[in-house]
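can u do me a favor
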């Protein structure tokens, strides 16, 4: 037959049960705290990563923007500098050909040189036209020189083409216009074909044909140029 517990025994059992419950509660609280700390650490790490990624993204964006802005600035300055250089070069070339144009008339004042030049210019026209009769136009002040040049050209033409004759007349009704620096025009095809061999026209051709060579001689070869003239 079981005996009833005394008050002391009941108090002891209650004390044991209280201690057990308290221990259980402490352990449970500890587990909750550990789990909470772990979750906090995870969440904190996640937030840190997100913020770091955001900062990195913003920095990269700003860095790219700064780099692009710098490139645009460099490109703009380079283009401005290039335009200034090209403009200065063009001014120099224009001045060079302008000075050459100013010396054309001085060249034509040397009767001997001008006569020889006119002979060669007439010959060039005769070979190009290959006709039996042509007209030559010149400045009025050059008529005497050109007449002698015509005779020399006819003689050389006949000799070079095994006796082939050509009639060359000075067209005194249509002289070269005022301001012409010298040289001649050779007219064939019944007046339809006009080979302009005046000094002014030859200089224009020289500006076009010889410009790349003159440019390279003055400024050197352009390594960035993909195609050559």
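np, heres the sequence
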């Amino acid at each position: 037959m079981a005996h009833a517990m005394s008050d002391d025994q009941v108090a002891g059992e209650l004390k044991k049960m209280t201690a057990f419950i308290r221990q259980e509660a402490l352990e449970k609280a500890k587990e909750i705290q550990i789990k909470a700390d772990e979750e906090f650490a995870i969440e904190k790490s996640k937030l840190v990563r997100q913020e770091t990624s955001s900062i990195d993204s913003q920095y990269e964006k700003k860095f790219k923007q700064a780099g692009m802005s710098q490139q645009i600035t460099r490109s703009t300055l380079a283009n401005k500098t290039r335009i200034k250089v090209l403009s200065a070069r063009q001014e120099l070339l224009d001045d060079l050909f302008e000075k050459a144009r100013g010396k054309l008339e001085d060249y034509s004042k040397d009767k001997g040189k001008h006569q020889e030049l006119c002979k060669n210019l007439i010959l060039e026209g005769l070979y190009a036209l290959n006709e039996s009769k042509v007209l030559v136009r010149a400045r009025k002040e050059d008529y005497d020189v050109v007449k002698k040049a015509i005779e020399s050209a006819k003689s050389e033409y006949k000799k070079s083409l095994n006796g082939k004759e050509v009639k060359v007349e000075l067209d005194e009704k249509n002289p070269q216009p005022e301001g012409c620096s010298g040289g001649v025009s050779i007219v064939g095809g019944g007046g339809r074909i006009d080979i302009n061999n005046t000094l002014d026209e030859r200089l224009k051709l020289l500006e076009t044909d010889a410009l790349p060579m003159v440019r390279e001689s003055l400024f050197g070869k352009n390594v960035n140029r993909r195609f050559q003239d």
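The chain has five helices and four strands. hope that helps!!
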